[in-house]
Structure formats: structure tokens, C-alpha cells
């Protein structure tokens, strides 16, 4: 029962928890009882942080690099990130536009505070990473959801964007590749969105946290086609540093000073040890490890997608990146939460219901994460097989 002595801000009533956390709690309870659970619910790589990064952290600790850093991050790391954009996208990004943040989550917090006022509207695809909607709601603004389907790669097209825009709309937030769908925006789509935003004087924010973890040759950054976009990225996924809480944002030139001021106020600086450790994330030795891991993810993706298809799940034609398969379960159930609960309770397979990611056909979808070993994926498919036979 709600305790009337507790006084929350009005916005809190609108912020929703992740259902995946309940799945994880239930899975832990089963494991505590000695059950073997196949985890396909977790959105983080099962690989631990690569050795060169660990070595960097040890060196940083031994040389006492334990103090706050400058708010936008250590300049060596910002330069390494600029070098990464030059090599990977052939983009020259001035280091002052790059700010190091406590994860992409810190970056989103900063950008939300910088760009959104109470009563504003932000266009967001449905389904999308749930925090995007929640960040908007925390600021007493309104997520304006654009329903997207498998046939359009779960990404909004320009016609939909134009139709969804309302008088209070101030920007659009996208993710490419997306969580929960692993599908990316094409270069021409990004170009159109950039042009539309510019002519309507709206901001574009693209969450590119899954860049690097890609299974197609070209996943463009919005910055290749629209220099005035806001980009959110992270060391969590491709670089395998989830627990270090380290990410970055790239902001247009005119926003640099305000972004720095907000970084000082919101978190003073990202973790110093994590920043010094991440300097090694761009070494050849580290990249070799990340590429091996990407290959392992690609094998898992091929296995899982073909098995899910033959079981009767309807999935995107191509998963471009990340480590998710967003699957239509309508052949088996009209209630994703019930489907996930039963799959976990009766067959010990943990997946996430679509209702975590939005409303549009959410009860008809579930998310599989291939963030577990091939052996466990095989076991998961075996269990799914027997679950669906009943
Ligand atoms: C699309 C998306 N953005 C941001 C985040 C947050 O990542 P970080 O660990 O960098 O805070 C996640 C985490 O799963 C994500 O899927």
C-alpha cells in the first residue's frame, strides 16, 4: 500500500520499472533452489572485460590515478575516441565535442536535462529501450511514441515521423542498432531524418551504443550525414565494460560549454580508473579480442535466428547489430508476459516480454538476448522445443 508520508515528485508516478528485473529475480530464486536456468534475458555481454583494459586499470591504480578528472573526461581518452571516429567513419570530430560520461546512461541523463523542458514532446519509436521514455517522463515531458513494425526494420520512416510530430515536439530520439530489435537505420534514412530535423529546428539524438557489435558491413553513424546530431555511445557493449560505467556523448559545437557545465553538476566526472583503463580499449591487442567476441556473437545469432524461425517465431529478416532477437510469438500466445513467466517457471528459460519496450504489439513479442554461451543457447532451444510442443 502507498505510504502517504512519502512524498515523491509528480514525475515519479509516470516512471516505470523494467520487467526484465522481475524475470532476473525469479531466475535467481530458481537458481538458489539448484535449478539450471538458461539466461537469454540479460542485455550485457557474457564475456568479462578484456585483459588489456584490466592491465590499464591496474597501472592506473598503482600510479594513484584515483582523483576526479576534468568534467568532460581526460583529454587522452577524448583524443582516442576522436581517432576511433576518424578510422571507423572517416569523421573528423573535434575532441571538445566529445564528453566522457558514466555510461550511456550518464550521457542520456545529461542530454535529457540539456534538451528537454516540462511539457515538451520527444518522438521515440515503439518498441525502444525503456529508459528513453522514462528519461523524458522524469523531466515532466511527453514521450510521443511512433509504432514501428518488423516490415520497416522496427525503425520509423519519414512519413511516420512527420505525422507523429506535434506542436510541442522538440526532438527525436532513436537508437541504431536498436534495443530490443537489433535493427539499424540506413544511411539514406538517417540523411532524411537529419534534413527534416534541420528544417523543423528540432534536435536529433541517436543512441549508437551497439556500434561495433555489427553483423553487416555498414552501420553508419548519424554524424556521417548530419553533423548537428547528438550521439550517445558507450564502452559497455562492444568494449565489454558494462560494470565500469563509462560512455561518451558527442554534441554539436554550440552545446559544448553547457554540456560541460551540466557534467560538472550532474556527476563531476566519470570514474577516473575506468577512463585510464579504457585508453587501452583502442589498442590492436584489445580490438583483436573484441573482434573475436563479435564473431562469437555472430555465430550465436545465426544459430538462434535459424532455430527460432524453424520453431515458428517471426523475426526480422536481418539482425544488423547488438545481441537481440525481437520475436513475434502470436503463433503461440497473445500474452508475452504470461508466455515469459511460464517459460521460466516451467522450462527454466529466461527471456524478456515485449511489454518492457513499449505498447505497440508488445504483448505479441518477446526479446531473446544471445548473451550466453552456444552450449546454453542450444539447451535453451531444446527447452523451447519441448515447451512449444505441449
Ligand atoms: C539502447 C541502450 N542505450 C543505453 C543503454 C545503457 O548503457 P550503459 O551501460 O552505457 O549505461 C543500454 C543498455 O542496455 C541500451 O540498450
- Domains (count): 2
> What structural category arises from helix and sheet content?
alpha/beta
The tally of strands reads 12
Give me the CATH fold name of the largest domain: Aspartate Aminotransferase, domain 2
CATH C-level category of the largest domain: Alpha Beta
Q: CATH homologous superfamily name of the largest domain? A: Type I PLP-dependent aspartate aminotransferase-like (Major domain)
Are there runs of 5+ residues with pLDDT below 50, and where?
none
Q: Calculate Rg over CA atoms.
A: 21 Å
What is the N-to-C order of secondary-structure elements (H for helix, E for strand)? Answer: HEHHEHEHEHEHEEEHHHEHEEEH
Number of helices: 12
The CA-CA distance between the termini, in Å, is 39 Å
Salient structural properties:
390 residues, alpha/beta, Aspartate Aminotransferase, domain 1, Aspartate Aminotransferase, domain 2, 2 domains, three-stranded antiparallel beta sheet, 12 helices, globular, binds pyridoxal-5'-phosphate
Description:
The structure is a single chain. This protein has twelve helices and twelve strands. It is of the alpha/beta class. It has a seven-stranded mixed β-sheet, sandwiched between helices. A three-stranded antiparallel β-sheet has the order 9-12-11. Strands 1-10 form a two-stranded parallel ribbon. The longest helix is centred in the last third of the chain and has 28 residues, at 284-311. The mean pLDDT is 96.
Itemize the secondary structure elements and their pairings:
Blueprint: H1 19-32, E1 38-39, H2 51-62, H3 75-89, E2 98-101, H4 103-115, E3 121-126, H5 130-138, E4 142-147, H6 158-164, E5 169-175, H7 187-200, E6 203-207, E7 230-234, E8 247-250, H8 256-267, H9 272-278, H10 284-311, E9 324-328, H11 336-347, E10 349-350, E11 352-353, E12 365-369, H12 374-389
Parallel strand pairs: 1-10, 3-4, 3-5, 5-6, 6-7
Antiparallel strand pairs: 2-8, 7-8, 9-12, 11-12
The structure holds pyridoxal-5'-phosphate (PLP).
The site of pyridoxal-5'-phosphate (PLP) has 13 residues, from helix 4.
Amino acid at each position: 500500500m502507498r505510504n502517504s508520508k512519502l512524498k515523491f515528485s509528480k514525475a515519479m508516478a509516470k516512471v516505470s520499472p523494467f520487467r526484465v528485473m522481475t524475470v532476473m529475480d525469479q531466475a535467481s530464486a530458481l537458481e538458489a533452489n539448484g535449478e539450471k536456468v538458461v539466461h537469454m534475458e540479460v542485455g550485457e555481454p557474457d564475456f568479462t572485460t578484456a585483459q588489456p583494459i584490466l592491465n590499464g586499470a591496474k597501472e592506473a591504480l598503482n600510479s594513484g590515478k584515483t582523483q576526479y578528472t576534468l568534467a568532460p573526461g581526460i583529454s587522452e581518452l577524448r583524443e582516442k575516441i576522436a581517432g576511433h571516429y576518424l578510422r571507423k567513419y572517416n569523421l573528423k570530430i573535434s575532441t571538445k565535442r566529445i564528453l566522457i560520461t558514466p555510461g550511456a546512461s550518464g550521457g542520456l541523463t545529461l542530454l535529457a536535462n540539456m534538451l528537454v523542458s516540462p511539457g515538451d514532446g520527444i518522438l521515440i519509436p515503439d518498441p525502444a529501450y525503456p529508459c528513453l521514455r522514462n528519461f523524458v517522463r522524469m523531466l515532466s515531458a511527453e514521450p510521443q511514441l511512433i509504432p514501428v513494425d518488423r516490415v520497416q526494420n522496427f525503425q520509423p520512416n519519414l512519413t511516420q515521423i512527420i505525422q507523429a510530430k506535434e506542436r510541442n515536439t522538440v526532438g527525436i530520439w532513436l537508437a541504431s542498432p536498436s534495443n530490443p530489435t537489433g535493427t539499424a537505420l540506413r544511411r539514406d534514412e538517417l540523411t532524411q531524418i537529419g534534413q527534416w530535423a534541420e528544417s523543423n529546428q528540432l534536435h536529433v539524438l541517436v543512441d549508437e551504443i551497439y556500434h561495433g557489435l555489427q553483423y553487416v558491413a555498414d552501420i553508419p553513424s548519424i554524424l556521417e550525414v548530419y553533423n548537428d546530431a547528438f550521439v550517445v555511445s558507450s564502452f559497455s557493449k562492444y568494449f565489454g565494460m558494462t560494470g565500469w560505467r563509462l560512455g561518451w556523448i558527442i554534441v554539436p559545437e554550440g552545446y559544448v560549454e553547457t554540456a560541460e557545465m551540466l557534467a560538472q553538476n550532474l556527476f563531476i566526472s566519470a570514474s577516473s580508473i575506468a577512463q585510464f583503463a579504457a585508453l587501452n580499449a583502442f589498442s590492436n591487442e584489445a580490438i583483436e579480442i573484441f573482434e573475436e567476441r563479435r564473431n562469437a556473437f555472430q555465430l550465436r545469432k545465426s544459430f538462434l535466428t535459424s532455430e527460432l524461425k524453424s520453431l515458428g517465431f517471426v523475426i526480422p529478416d536481418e539482425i544488423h547489430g547488438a545481441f537481440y532477437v525481437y520475436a513475434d510469438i502470436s503463433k503461440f500466445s497473445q500474452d508475452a508476459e504470461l508466455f515469459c513467466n511460464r517459460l521460466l517457471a516451467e522450462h527454466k528459460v529466461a527471456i524478456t516480454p515485449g511489454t518492457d519496450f513499449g505498447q505497440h504489439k508488445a504483448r505479441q513479442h518477446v526479446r531473446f538476448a544471445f548473451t550466453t554461451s552456444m552450449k546454453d543457447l542450444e539447451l535453451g532451444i531444446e527447452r523451447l522445443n519441448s515447451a512449444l510442443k505441449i
